[in-house]
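Figure 6 in text form: structure in, sequence out.
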C-alpha cells in the first residue's frame, strides 16, 4: 500500500514556490492509495464512505483517502462514468483521469508536510505548465466531463495570469458543440459560478464561458436573449477597488445580474437555484437604483420611506449590502459615483440614527396616550420622523 498527496495541495504549494502566489490558509488535502483493497483499508482502521467508488476516512485525521482508480464514460453528463478501483491501478493511471496537468501532480505521503520541496511525481508536465501559467487538459478524457469547463473558467478567475492552452480551448468549444454542456445540472453550475464570483477576477469566468460558447447554453430562455448584457467585469474588479474586494457573494450576484431586466433576473436565479436571499437583494437593488434620489431630494421623509420599504430596520445588514450594490454600480456613472455616494451617506446616517431609536418606548407612549390599531403605527412613524429631524444628520 502506497499513499500519495495529490491535486490542489501540491499545486498550491508549488504556486507559492514558483510564482509567489499565496497558498490557501487551510487547503483541503486529497490522498490517493495505490495497491490496496477496500478490505485492507478497513483492516487498517479506515472508515468507508464512498458511494460511487471506494473512499475512506482516516481513523485519526478524518481526511478522505481514495483508492487509485480509472474511469470510463458510460452516459452523457458528469454522472455518466464507471469506475475501476483495484490494486493494479497505478498512480500515473489515477493522475491521468484528472482535469488539468497542474492538478495531476503528487508527492509521497511522507513528504506531504512540505510538498514544495519534496520529490515531485509529475508524469503529465504539470510543473512546466504551472510555470508557464497554462491550463492544459491531461488527456482527451477531459471532454467527457462538462463540469471541467466550469472548473477551468473558475481557475481563470482565481489566477488572472493563467490562460487555457489553445488545444484545451478548442476542446472546450468542441464539447459545447457536441452538447455536453447541456447536461450540466443547475446545482453544479451554481456551485462553480458562486465560487468563481468570489475569486479575484470573476469577469474572466464569464469570458471563458463566452469564448467556448457555453454561456448561452447555461442560461434559461428568458435570460438567453440578454446574455450579451452580462458584464465583462464586476464593478471595481479591474483595479481592485475596496468596494469589490470586500463584497459578499450576495453583492457580487446583484452586480452580475444588474444589467438584466426583472424577468430575466428572476428566471436566471430560479434556473440556477440561487438562494432566495441573493435573488431578493438583486431585485431590490434593481428597484431602488431605478429611481435613486439625488442627495438634495433625500430628506428625512424620503429617507424614512425608503428605509422602511427596504425593511432596513429589521434587516440592517441587508440594507448595507443594498447600498454597496448601488454604490458599486454607480462607479460607471459620469461622475464616478460621487452623487450617488452623497445620497448613500445620507441614507446610511439615517439608518444608524433609526437603529438607536427606541421604537418600543414610542409604542408604549402611544398606547398610554390612548392610541389603538393604525393610530399606533402612525404615531410610531411620526416619532421616527421627528427623531431624524432632531438628529441634524442632513448636512453633507
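Output sequence:
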Amino acid at each position: 500500500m502506497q499513499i500519495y498527496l495529490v491535486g490542489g495541495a501540491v499545486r498550491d504549494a508549488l504556486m507559492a514556490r514558483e510564482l509567489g502566489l499565496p497558498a490557501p490558509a487551510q487547503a483541503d488535502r486529497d490522498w490517493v492509495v495505490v495497491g490496496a483493497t477496500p478490505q485492507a483499508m478497513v483492516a487498517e482502521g479506515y472508515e468507508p464512505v464512498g458511494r460511487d467508488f471506494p473512499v475512506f476516512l482516516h481513523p485519526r485525521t478524518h481526511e478522505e483517502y481514495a483508492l487509485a482508480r480509472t474511469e470510463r464514460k458510460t452516459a452523457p453528463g458528469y454522472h455518466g462514468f464507471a469506475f475501476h478501483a483495484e490494486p493494479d491501478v497505478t498512480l500515473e493511471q489515477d493522475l491521468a483521469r484528472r482535469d488539468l496537468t497542474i492538478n495531476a501532480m503528487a508527492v509521497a505521503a511522507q513528504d506531504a508536510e512540505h510538498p514544495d520541496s519534496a520529490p515531485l511525481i509529475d508524469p503529465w508536465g504539470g510543473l512546466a505548465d504551472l510555470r508557464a501559467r497554462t491550463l492544459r487538459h491531461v488527456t482527451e478524457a477531459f471532454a467527457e466531463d462538462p463540469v471541467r469547463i466550469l472548473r477551468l473558467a473558475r481557475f481563470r478567475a482565481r489566477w488572472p495570469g493563467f490562460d487555457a492552452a489553445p488545444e484545451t480551448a478548442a476542446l472546450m468549444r468542441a464539447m459545447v458543440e457536441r452538447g455536453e454542456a447541456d447536461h450540466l445540472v443547475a446545482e453544479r453550475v451554481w456551485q462553480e459560478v458562486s465560487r468563481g464570483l468570489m475569486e479575484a477576477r470573476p469577469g474572466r469566468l464569464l469570458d471563458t464561458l463566452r469564448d467556448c460558447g457555453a454561456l448561452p447554453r447555461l442560461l434559461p430562455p428568458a435570460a438567453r436573449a440578454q446574455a450579451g448584457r452580462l458584464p465583462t467585469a464586476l464593478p471595481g474588479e479591474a483595479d481592485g477597488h475596496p468596494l469589490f474586494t470586500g463584497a459578499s457573494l450576495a453583492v457580487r450576484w446583484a452586480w452580475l445580474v444588474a444589467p438584466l431586466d426583472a424577468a430575466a433576473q428572476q428566471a436566471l436565479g430560479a434556473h440556477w437555484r440561487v438562494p432566495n436571499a441573493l435573488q431578493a437583494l438583486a431585485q431590490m437593488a434593481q428597484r431602488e437604483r431605478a429611481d435613486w434620489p439625488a442627495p438634495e431630494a433625500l430628506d428625512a421623509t424620503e429617507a424614512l420611506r425608503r428605509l422602511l420599504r427596504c425593511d432596513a430596520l429589521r434587516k440592517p445588514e441587508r440594507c448595507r449590502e443594498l447600498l454597496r450594490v448601488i454604490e458599486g454600480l454607480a462607479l460607471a456613472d459620469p461622475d464616478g459615483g460621487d452623487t450617488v455616494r452623497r445620497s448613500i451617506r445620507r441614507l446610511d446616517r439615517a439608518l444608524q440614527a433609526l437603529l438607536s431609536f427606541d421604537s418600543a418606548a414610542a409604542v408604549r407612549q402611544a398606547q398610554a396616550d390612548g392610541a389603538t390599531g393604525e393610530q399606533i403605527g402612525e404615531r410610531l412613524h411620526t416619532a421616527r420622523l421627528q427623531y431624524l429631524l432632531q438628529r441634524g444628520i442632513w448636512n453633507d
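Caption detail: Residues 1-132 form a domain with the Beta Polymerase; domain 2 fold (CATH 3.30.460.10).
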